Amino acid sequence: MSRIAAKFVSASSAGRKLLIPFITAGDPKPEFSVPMMHAMVAAGADIIELGVPFSDPMADGPVIQRASERALAKGMSLRKVLTLVSDFRKQDQDTPIVLMGYLNPVEAMGYENFAEAAKTAGVDGVLTVDIPPEEAEEYVVLLKAREIDPVFLLAPNSSNERIKKMDAAGSGYLYYVSLKGVTGAGHLDLDEVEKKIQQIKKYTKLPIGVGFGVKDSQTARSIARIADAVVVGSALISKIESSPDDLEKAKQGIVDLLSSMRQAMDS
């Protein structure tokens, strides 16, 4: 059983839902990321999604796009992201790490080289936004052989057949994009989210995490009632962007938001 699967099993037994924060690796500078990851765990994070900066992030809204730009300007690369994971693992062997990014850097490294490097670094899952399951067979086999979970995205317009394909290819959890558009956009229709999750659960036994629009503790609590995990990204990165010259303030802002979400989800 992977670290991700074990985390969901443990949470389910305890009657609690997982909190999965996202930050972009190397934003606003590489030395900020690992201490921030540890602080997020202390604030109640169960799994961390670590964004791999990319120059053309098609699914990401402007907040995360700018985070990628800041990280790339500091020289971040896929290999350097893996080094950050290795550094995090020196103190934390328990918290699952999911890399979230795009296929181009992986293809440049080579699927097998990437899978092996990710395993060595201590990566538990990979969410590659722009590879559909129909084209991912070789990639998925290489990841699963190393006990790395390939995580796939589902959208509001995903058909039943699409859900079945994602279930067959994926492991760990499925990430439901709760609204049409990019990260951080729009207003959640929780009734529609609940209907879609009920539909998805007819075709998969994998846990379902919900993201793209989680902004505050009230939203996190509402989603926790209907999903297995709550994913939050843009709202956290906004704290970094609003305090570029005071990263301790940014870090505390992220910790405070996550702590309030954790408390609301557990209440």
Please provide a written account of the structure.
The protein is an alpha/beta fold and 267 residues long. It has a single domain, classed as TIM Barrel (Alpha-Beta Barrel). Helix content is 50%, strand content 14%. It has twelve helices and eight strands. It has helices at 3-14, 30-42, 62-73, 78-89, 103-109, 111-121, 137-144, 160-169, 190-201, 217-224, 234-242, 247-266; strands spanning 18-24, 48-51, 97-101, 125-128, 149-154, 174-177, 208-211, 229-232. The chain has an eight-stranded parallel β-barrel, surrounded by eight helices. The radius of gyration is 17 Å and the shape is globular. It starts with a helix and ends with a helix.
Largest sheet report = 8 strands, parallel, barrel
What percentage of amino acids are in beta strands? 5-15%
- Low-pLDDT segments: 181-185
CATH homologous superfamily caption: Aldolase class I
Q: Count the helices. How many?
A: 12
| SS elements, strand count | 8
Order of helices and strands: HEHEHHEHHEHEHEHEHEHH
Rounded to an integer, what's the Rg over CA atoms? 17 Å
Q: CATH topology, what is it called?
A: TIM Barrel
Strand order of the largest sheet: 1-2-3-4-5-6-7-8
CATH top level is: Alpha Beta
Average pLDDT works out at 94
Sheet/helix structural class: alpha/beta
What is the count of structural domains?
1
Give the overall shape, derived from the CA principal axes.
globular
